[in-house]
Specification:
Blueprint lengths: L1 H22 L2 E8 L5 H10 L10 E5 L2 H21 L6 H11 E3 H10 L8 E4 L8 H11 L9 H10 L5 E7 L13 H10 L4 E5 L11 H8 L3 E4 L3 E2 L11 H9 L3 H11 L5 E4 L2 H11 L6 E5 L19 H6 L17 H4 L4 E7 L4 E4 L2 E8 L2 E4 L3 H15 L2 E8 L16 H9 L3 E2 L1
Parallel strand pairs: 1-5, 1-6, 1-8, 2-3, 2-4, 4-5, 6-7, 9-15, 9-16, 10-11, 11-15
Antiparallel strand pairs: 12-13, 13-14
Helix pairs in contact: 1-2, 3-4, 7-8, 8-9, 10-11, 10-15
């Protein structure tokens, strides 16, 4: 079902591109999907079919997710070299990298290029991965002022990016790949930023919406209602990827994670009952036991690793240090003999390194940054020598979304570690950990 759904979505996007070209129209499309549904795959699929720089439908795939861009480029370049070798040919790694870098770019490089150059880009088709993470006007303006020395920049990132494609005199297509509930950084505006940009500055553009954009997790607000009401707006079921490719055994994982984070314990129990036999989730307080659990379950080249929140600063006594910079390329792609690879279970990756990427098996270590306090979550960050409460609603949401990203990374199953804490260490008081462990245990997770 997953592959069929992907093919239908890619075919619809191809039709919209072709119709826009033939009719001289400019179109923006919004593709939604559950975590792991294959949104990135659809984007790459469309981009790789339009690689010829001389073709009218030349495309580029853009992502603001640096680790994703680095890992995708390296994986595709290695694959290109290996495939050539298996067919008796030879492709130099440097050439393969150059080829891949042309069509997978960091959105910030693209943006900087067209800040300097006011011509239309060579590409008529641009695909934006994780479009909901684009910056709002405030964040873009601050960045331009502080980092680029340009004061008075008054556009959000979506508005500027669409304006680059709008420079084409004839036609253009922008495809936004929209994840749910995964804004994890300051200034990430959510999908409304794109709607506001189109409504305010690009009235002549056609809009193609997934029928699922109104679902709560996409956080489309009243701008969505206004865009649906305007002429030239079309809705398509096939712009939603419902089936999770990532977890062929557990399409319900994203629902379970949402229920866990929304503290809907009864619903989470029912969901877990329905898929625990196909997608094991274990719970422990012992990191050593978790490492053994991963190694016992992984078969052959199945990849496993330890993931933690970027705010998890009190896991250092367990030798897990978020402040040590992990290289995502080595972590995700190198073999079991490399100490820097995820297989070694030493270096940890945070939500920023794993978003948009995946493992077969994951160990999620839960620190005191997100802890249960009575009937609600308490959100903390570690400053100096103690935990301090996070007051701003946006930052609280980013922290919950960090755990949402971590808990949806594994294709086959995961183990959650909630440390014991230490009565001698006030920054690791058992009260920061026990209620979270008790809550997760009450859901029926398998304790090891």
């Amino acid at each position: 079902a997953g592959a069929r759904n992907l093919a239908q979505t890619a075919a619809l996007l191809d039709r919209i591109v072709e119709q826009s070209r033939q009719r001289g129209r400019k179109s923006i499309c919004f593709v939604t999907g559950v975590p792991g549904a294959g949104k990135t795959l659809v984007g790459l699929d469309v981009a790789t079919r339009h690689l010829d720089a001389d073709s009218e439908t030349y495309s580029v795939f853009l992502s603001g997710n640096g680790p994703l861009v680095a890992v995708l480029r390296e994986a595709l370049a290695r694959d290109r070299v290996e495939r050539a070798a298996s067919q008796g040919g030879k492709v130099r790694k440097g050439d393969a990298r150059q080829e891949v870098e042309a069509f997978i770019q960091n959105v910030h490089h693209f943006r900087d290029e067209y800040l300097r150059d006011d011509r239309a880009p060579p590409e008529h088709v641009v695909l934006f991965d994780e479009a909901q993470r684009a910056w709002n006007r405030q964040q873009t303006s601050a960045f331009m002022r502080q980092k680029k020395g340009r004061s008075g920049f008054a556009q959000s990132e979506p508005e500027f990016l669409v304006s680059c494609l709008d420079r084409h005199a004839d036609w253009a297509v922008v495809v936004c790949l929209v994840g749910s509930g995964q804004e994890i950084h300051t200034g990430e505006g959510g999908i409304d930023e794109w709607f506001d940009a189109v409504l305010g500055s690009f009235p002549a553009w056609d809009v193609h919406l997934s029928t699922r954009l109104a679902d709560a997790e996409y956080r489309g607000g009243e701008a969505l209602q206004r865009i649906r009401a305007r002429p030239g707006c079309f809705e398509h079921d096939d712009l939603h990827l419902a089936t999770s490719m990532r977890s062929f055994r557990a399409e319900t994982l994203s629902r379970f994670v949402r229920e866990v984070l929304d503290l809907e314990a009864d619903a989470a129990r029912r969901t877990l009952d329905g898929f625990a036999s196909r997608y094991p989730i274990a719970l422990t307080r012992d990191l050593g036991a978790a490492r053994c659990w991963l190694r016992e379950r992984a078969r052959g080249s199945e990849r496993y690793g330890v993931v933690v929140s970027s705010q998890a600063e009190r896991l250092k006594p367990l030798a897990l240090d978020v402040r040590v910079k992990t290289d995502p390329v080595k972590w995700f792609l190198d073999g079991k003999e490399d100490t820097r690879s995820s297989y070694y279970l030493e270096d940890v990756a945070t939500e920023f390194q794993v978003q948009g990427l995946e493992l077969d098996w994951a160990c999620v270590v839960w620190d005191g940054d997100l802890r249960l306090d009575g009937q609600r979550w308490a959100h903390h960050r570690f400053r100096g020598t103690r935990w301090t409460r996070i007051a701003q609603p946006d930052r609280r949401r980013y922290l919950e979304n960090a755990y949402r990203v971590l808990l949806t990374r594994a294709r086959q199953g995961m183990v959650l570690v909630v440390p014991e804490g230490d009565p001698e260490d006030p920054t690791r008081d058992r009260r920061f950990y026990d209620p979270t462990y008790d809550y997760l245990q009450s859901l029926g997770l398998q304790c090891i």
